[in-house]
Every structure is written in structure tokens, then in C-alpha cells.
UniProtKB/TrEMBL annotation:
This is Triosephosphate isomerase. It is found in: Cytoplasm. GO terms for cellular component: cytosol. GO terms for molecular function: triose-phosphate isomerase activity. Pathway: Carbohydrate biosynthesis; gluconeogenesis; Carbohydrate degradation; glycolysis; D-glyceraldehyde 3-phosphate from glycerone phosphate: step 1/1. Its EC number is 5.3.1.1. Keywords: Cytoplasm, Gluconeogenesis, Glycolysis, Isomerase. It comes from Candidatus Roizmanbacteria bacterium CG_4_10_14_0_8_um_filter_33_9. It is an enzyme of class 5 (isomerase). GO terms for biological process: gluconeogenesis; glyceraldehyde-3-phosphate biosynthetic process; glycerol catabolic process; glycolytic process. Pfam families: TIM (PF00121).
Amino acid sequence: MKYFIANWKTNKTLQLSIEWMQTFLENYVPNENKKIIICPPFPFISKLNEMISQSAHVYIGSQDISVYEQGTYTGEVSALNLSGIIKYTIIGHSERSLHMHESTDISFQKSKLAHKYGFAQFYCIKNENDPYPPYVEFVCYEAIDAISTGDGKGNNKPLKIIIGLKRKLALQPNTKFIYGGSVNENNCKEYFNSPEIDGFLIGGASLNPQRFLAIINS
Ligand code: PGA
């Protein structure tokens, strides 16, 4: 099984997200060995969930959840709010610490809430020294210098380096290992054939449905 996670970050309007999904679904061929998880901005989640309701192996996830569960936290979107709507979430993306100054402690608290609400989580680490909660389903390795500036064409890490880091992590047998950082339609083949990598977190190259499909179909 390979996992393809689209991380749209803070891009698109509702209309553009609908057009993306229409193009995606027109060209998407379900494959039981591939799971697709699309993580749009929060406001588009429900509409996109409706659009994929008849499509096999496609899911909508969130890019983050609040560190709070419920209460007087204006503007926050919590695991409780998202329960019954999503089953997957990204936790601890490095852009949360870079721009929102979130600590590892905050990521761990969010992770606990995601776990409590039964979300499978893509828990991001930047290097082999980053801790991760032992129960997470997916550990996602994204070195900061590999993340693109938005076009998916940055300094992706060579497969050898990725596998070396994975070994150092000594993951539990059930924990899946995801790679992210400038994965695109040109470099994905090298990764795809490696049994060491269970999936990909794709930012810039997922913004265009044709590029995202090219990665899935590689
Ligand atoms: P990128 O982003 O594919 O544009 O490098 C990946 C990510 O940060 O999730």
C-alpha cells in the first residue's frame, strides 16, 4: 500500500478547490494499493468530502488541528469540531513551528487529541533527532531544506539519505514511513520503487491535479 497525501497549505479558493476535484475525479483510476488523502484548507473540507463520497480510496484530511479540544478559543478548529468529518490529519508540520512558533510540546498535545478522536495522523519530523509519539500511524520525514517554496521543485533528498534516516528512527513494525519535501512528477519514480517508503507528503506538486495524478500513476 502506498499513501499519497496532498498538502495544499494556504492555497486556493472554494471555487478553485472544486475545479481541482472535478479534474482529479475525471482522471482518477482507483487502485486498491494506493490511498489518496487530500488536505485542503479547513473551509473546503466538507464540500470536498461530498465530492469524493462515491470514489474509492480517496479521503479528505486536515492540515492541522487545534491544541485545544473545545471551549473559548476564538478561531481555533479542534479535533472535536472535525470529528465525524475527517479521519486523517497532518500534525507538527515544520511550517507550524516556523511561522506560528509551535513547539514539539504543542505538536505532542495535538497528537494526543488526534489520537483521542481516532484520526490517523501524519506526524512530521525534520530530522532523526525529532521525537514522535509512539502510537502514531505515520511518521513523515520532511527536512526543512527539502520543502519547496510552493512549486514542488526544491532540494528533494536522495533516496539513500531518506533510507539512512529511516533506519536511525527504529520505527515500530506497524508505523508507516512517509517522505515529503519537493516530491514531484519527475523525482517520484525513484522513491516509488523503494519498499522502504510507504508514501509521500506532497505540497507544491499537489496544487495541480494533473501533476498530482502523474505522481500517483508513476
Ligand atoms: P513541497 O511541500 O512538496 O512543496 O516541498 C511538502 C510539504 O511541506 O508538505
